Amino acid sequence: MARTRIKICGLTRVEDVQAAVAAGADAIGFVFYPKSPRYVTPEQAAALIACVPPFVTCTGLFVNASPAEVAATVAIAPIALIQLHGDETVAESAAIAAAAARPYVRVFRVKPDTAPADLLEYEQQCRAAGPWFTSLLLDTYVDAYGGAGKGFDWSLIPKELAPRVVLSGGLSVHNATDAVREVRPYAVDISSGVEASKGIKDGRKIAAFVAAVRAGDDLIERATHHECASAAPVPR
Ligand SMILES: O=C(O)c1ccccc1N[C@@H]1O[C@H](COP(=O)(O)O)[C@@H](O)[C@H]1O
């Protein structure tokens, strides 16, 4: 099984970008939602992106922005992927991505009464809406939209959907290994769990989180190898 991809979100400082890259993050995220304590202007994001080496995906997070606003932002900050974290409908999400000419991750904010079938159906709707959709990102429903460090019940995620989703919401060094082992998501996304304070990341927490995710990956690998090694040879 391929290793779990890791995104560190809500970066506002060069040293935090460097810490995420040094720890082995696959993606980093910039929050373009003005009400967030992690908000950066497109110009600030552009300066931070200039510090990012190739093959690390720079992501822009938006909440209820218009297609024109998103397009104007990506024209200044060279982000590769959009994360739509607000109340945008499926059709609006597709229109925003088309206007910005960027692939997007659509966020589903999970509530206690969300049914597993809701997630599968929503993913199908996103896929049908156009070619820019990449993956569902699952986060916990909170009034502030996200970045609240609050988790949800992972058992709501259908097994067949898990390998395609980005798991988010309340992740930390304490639950990352279990998250990978139990859910087996395509990727994980974290913000508050690797912070010293809102908008200020802690390099040691980032490194510890990445190590905890990799520990989960190793457990999955070992289980797979054990299954193969213990399989009886087929008699001829
Ligand atoms: O980070 C924010 O301030 C934010 C604001 C509005 C919407 C989403 C936001 N962050 C995203 O929320 C999830 C969960 O974060 P956490 O790890 O529980 O703090 C994550 O995808 C962030 O990118």
TrEMBL record:
Q: Where are the transmembrane segments?
A: none
Give the matching Pfam families.
Answer: PRAI
Which reaction does this enzyme catalyse, per its entry?
N-(5-phospho-beta-D-ribosyl)anthranilate = 1-(2-carboxyphenylamino)-1-deoxy-D-ribulose 5-phosphate
Please list the GO terms describing molecular function: phosphoribosylanthranilate isomerase activity
Keywords from the UniProt entry? Amino-acid biosynthesis, Aromatic amino acid biosynthesis, Isomerase, Tryptophan biosynthesis
**What InterPro entries does the entry give?**
Aldolase_TIM, PRAI_dom, RibuloseP-bd_barrel, TrpF_fam
Q: In which pathway does it act?
A: Amino-acid biosynthesis; L-tryptophan biosynthesis; L-tryptophan from chorismate: step 3/5
The first-level EC class reads: isomerase
Q: What is its EC number?
A: 5.3.1.24
Gene3D superfamilies, per database record: Aldolase class I
This protein's source sits in the domain of life called Bacteria
What residue stretches are annotated with the N-(5'phosphoribosyl) anthranilate isomerase (PRAI) domain? 6-211
Q: Which family does it belong to?
A: Belongs to the TrpF family.
Q: What is this protein called?
A: N-(5'-phosphoribosyl)anthranilate isomerase
Which species expresses this protein natively?
Answer: Duganella qianjiadongensis
Q: Which gene encodes it?
A: trpF
